[in-house]
Amino acid sequence: YFGFIFALLGVYNQFRKDRSIALFMLLMFLLNLGYFTYYPVRDYSVMVAPAYYFLTIWIAFGFDFLYQETSEYPLSLFRIGFVVCLLLFILYPLQSQYDKSLDRMDRNRA
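^ thats the sequence. predicted structure below, dont judge the formating
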């Protein structure tokens, strides 16, 4: 749900900058999601992959929007907090997928 907030900011930012590309991406997103929602297939997650791509592009636009809005404050506490939250948003899911049972390194050896 955290990424969806940034995606909404990204859609807003894209509509503000270039309305025609934003309408095209929104139309393609909705058509893809709407068509494959009721499409009877087993690998549903693969069929809506283009919708996920559009969503990730909008998340990136959302991060860009926040970064540009805070660019007038030189190294403020808010901007440092934004960078820390961005790193946590990227690194935490990667760390949570790491399976420690597959770790073969013996840390007790000298």
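The chain is about 75% helix and 0% strand.
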